[in-house]
Amino acid sequence: MTDIKTPNRSLGFVKGALAALALAAAGAALWLTPAVSAEDAVKIPPPALDEKAVAGSEKAIFAGGCFWGVQGVFQHVKGVTKAVSGYTGGDKDSAVYETVGTGRTGHAESVEITYDPSKVTYGQLLQVYFSVAHNPTQLNFQGPDSGTQYRSTIFAENDAQKKIAQSYIAQLDQAKVFPQPIVTTLETGKTFYPAENYHQDFLTLNPTYPYIVYNDLPKVANLKALFPALYSEKPVLVLSASN
To answer: Is residue 142 part of a domain?
Structure first.
């Protein structure tokens, strides 16, 4: 199994585990229900504004809590050719897991997604991001993880992505699809730095790790349930030589 180094997740997970045990005592057994997790998926409408579905290769960078789950979700999206866990928002020297974990670097745990717009558009990626990958109404935390390094942020690669994201956030807020306003921020001109190898493909390589079982595997199940046309059974992995 991958060498697991998660110092700034331990306390949050203990809290999440205790909550899960309390639910179990009440007969809920949430971890046995694939479509239920710390952050339930929300069915939302597609974006009214989107890019043209033309063949090519583009990149998108999303931050929404622990990058293990975000990466794991987008690795199962058709049209995505690569999804890499990393850090965005700070400088190169501070793009180190233990340093980012202090919450003082400006970085957010993020995922850089390479995709073919003829198969999945930027707007569709945003729909998955807001619906399945994380909860966009949580400010500087996701599930058991807290701190600005877990903030909900879209790192727009260009003006077109920024415009689509802004339009979609306004659309979802106006439709009141979430019980609270979306707190997702937009940042531009930021550089993505890949995370350490032991963080790559973490969900796939560690499917029995308790944090993954409770917080992240349900997200992949929700992707399959809510977006069957976009779901790919085989994930595109970063470290596997076969991909």
So the answer is: yes
Amino acid making up residue 83? A
Give the model confidence (pLDDT) of 26-83 as tens digits: 333 332 333 334 457 899 999 999 999 999 999 999 999 999 999 999 999 999 999 9
Domain that holds residue 217: 46-226
Token reading at 185: 């921020």
User: In degrees, to the nearest 5, what angle opens at C-alpha 75 toward C-alphas 71 and 81?
Assistant: 120
Catalytic positions, please? 66
* Vertex 191: Cα angle to 121 and 189 (nearest 5): 75
Would 118 be classed as within a structural domain?
Answer: yes
- 210-239 pLDDT, tens digit per residue, is 999 999 999 999 999 999 999 999 999 999
Residue 107, domain member (yes or no): yes
The amino acid sitting at 122 is Y
* CATH number of the domain enclosing 70: 3.30.1060.10
Q: How far apart are CA 125 and CA 118, in angstroms?
A: 12
How far apart (Å, rounded) are the C-alpha atoms in residues 223 and 110? 19
On whether the CB atoms of residues 39 and 221 are closer than 8 A, the answer is no
Longest dimension (CA), the chain: 51
Work out how many domains the chain is built from and give that number.
1
What's the pTM? Answer: 0.86
Q: Is residue 22 part of a domain?
A: no
Q: How far apart are the first and last CA of the chain?
A: 20
